[in-house]
Write a structure and sequence with these properties.
The protein is an all-alpha fold. Helix content is about 65%, strand content about 0%. The protein has helices at about 15-25, 35-40, 45-55, 75-95, 105-110, 125-155, 155-180, 185-195, 215-250. The longest helix has about 35 residues, at about 215-250.
Amino acid sequence: MAQELPRRTNFSGPALIRLLSRLLDAHVREPGQPLPDRLSQWLGWTDAIGLASALGAAPAVAAAARPGHAEPGAAQAEEDYAHVRAMLERAIAELGEPAAAPPRARQKGLGGARGRPAPPVEYSTYRRRYVSLQQNMESAIAALRARLRTALASASPGAARLAVLDAVMEQALDAREHELLSAVPALLERRFLRLRPADPEPDADSLVGRAPASDDWQAVFRRDMQSVLRAELDLRLQPVDGLLAALRSGAP
């Protein structure tokens, strides 16, 4: 089956949006408002108070860690970051394995040439796997982000203020981020339906004397899905990258 080449887009936003626009052949326009104006629409008055307090406060920095409870330094934070990222990237790579057919379907496949083939994978299978990975990313990255804030809080007054500011921003934007990223699986379904053959389950009689249909379209979709997951991972890690850069700059 010939694969359609995704249309290019001139949109210069995040890689995740550019990738989705190409896969769906959708035209995405540049936002009409600058980022600060759009960000202000996502924040309520309680968030503004929290941000003002974080910017104006002078957080105390721990003079020394308690014995046996040393705070992680920049080197340990780098290792922590690398471990979490590698774990999530490995989980994304494992999505390349095809889903196993149900036991009943495998048994039917032993019935001879005229038996109905195993049913094709439905998108609901991929949706569950995508949502599960989103949940894994969300929990692992939130815990990593909190640990990096703890490391920053003991580094310097400026770093401690950044840690407080990041905590306020995470709380303020968490619901908005969840709302936007939860729409990605539904967008991927459109790509799945475009790649899937028009007749994925032909009658048994129509298969006599014919070679089985190619499953290459599923391999193409899994690669697309992995690419989207990696782009989402990069997007979710951007605040963590900022915290880690701040730790690096303050390291001896």
